[in-house]
Structure to design on (108 residues):
């Protein structure tokens, strides 16, 4: 199983657990202050864990994006080579136009 899949399943579990604990507190399922504080502590811990997992996934995505952009940048020609290619294409077009004009004018 891949790491992302495991983290996503853990995130889903944490969200459902937080939701059920929140419902338990708000629906009056807590009969003592100690139990209330304990459940609130659990919710805070799960939310902190959830935030940390989300940050890890976000960092991983940013690193993958950077790696992809750096590898794609290596395949791009430097500007000076690109200018040379453009100039040669422009010269080719101009030569074709000149040849066409000379053929039409009968200068062959």
């Amino acid at each position: 199983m891949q790491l992302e899949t495991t983290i996503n399943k853990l995130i889903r579990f944490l969200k459902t657990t937080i939701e059920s604990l929140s419902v338990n507190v708000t629906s009056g399922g807590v009969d003592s202050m100690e139990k209330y504080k304990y459940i609130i502590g659990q919710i805070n811990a799960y939310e902190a864990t959830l935030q940390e997992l989300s940050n890890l996934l976000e960092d991983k995505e940013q690193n993958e994006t950077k790696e992809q952009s750096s590898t794609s940048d290596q395949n791009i020609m430097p500007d000076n080579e690109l200018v040379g290619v453009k100039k040669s294409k422009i010269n080719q077009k101009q030569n074709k136009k000149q040849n066409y004009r000379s053929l039409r004018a009968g200068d062959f």
